[in-house]
Amino acid sequence: MIQYRDAVTGDAAALSALSRQSFTDTFGHLYRPEDLAAFLERLSEEAWAAELGDPGFRIRIAEDDGVAAGFAKLGPPALPVERRGPSAELRQLYVLGAWHGTGVAATLMDWAIETSRAEGARDLYLSVFIENHRARRFYEKRGFERVGTYVFMVGEQADEDDLMRLAL
To answer: How many helices (DSSP H) and strands (DSSP E) are in the chain?
Structure first.
């Protein structure tokens, strides 16, 4: 049975491993090894510990029998969008492949929307790789609309992401 809870500092190692595995499984084939390695450094246990200790971030973790299956991370808006008022940013929503289609992503997204709304955000922003069709369809079904593009760096490789907004 899948359980959801707010992540704590002690979850840094699990979140680092989950985020590295999820990114590599989904996108690893697109990059030179050195670019992938440079990006994965940003997902280190130390980086996660810093964010878990920062009150500007909210992180929700999904666990299946104690195994981390996915997470959602809200953080201060950093994407290059023209905000219409108070906003939140969904920095990451990662679910490992074994849990795709189980409702984990939908539950984590519900949490992100409800939390953003409760904290007074008017809009929720995110970026998604233009070729990640599964994720784009998921966000569009939830009401997100494309509002621009963004250059997302993986090492020295520039990828094009769509910027998306959900009016809360």
So the answer is: 5, 7
Q: Which residue has the tokens 């929720």?
A: 124
Q: What angle do CA 48, 72, 61 make, to 5 degrees?
A: 75
Find out whether 126 and 143 touch, Cβ atoms under 8 Å. Answer: no
Q: In 10 A of CB 149, how many CB atoms? A: 13
Q: How confident is the model at residue 151 (pLDDT cuts 50, 70, 90)?
A: very high
Residues making up the chain, counted from first to last: 168
Residue that the structure tokens 């690893």 belong to: 28
- CA angle 75/79/81 to nearest 5° reads 125
Three-state DSSP class for residue 4: strand
Q: Is the pTM of this model over 0.90?
A: yes
Please provide the distance, in angstroms rounded to a whole number, between the alpha carbons at the two ends of the chain: 30
| CA angle (15, 16, 20) in 5-degree steps | 115
Helix (H) or strand (E) segment spanning residue 166? strand 157-167
Nearest Cα to 135, choosing from 112, 105, 158?
105
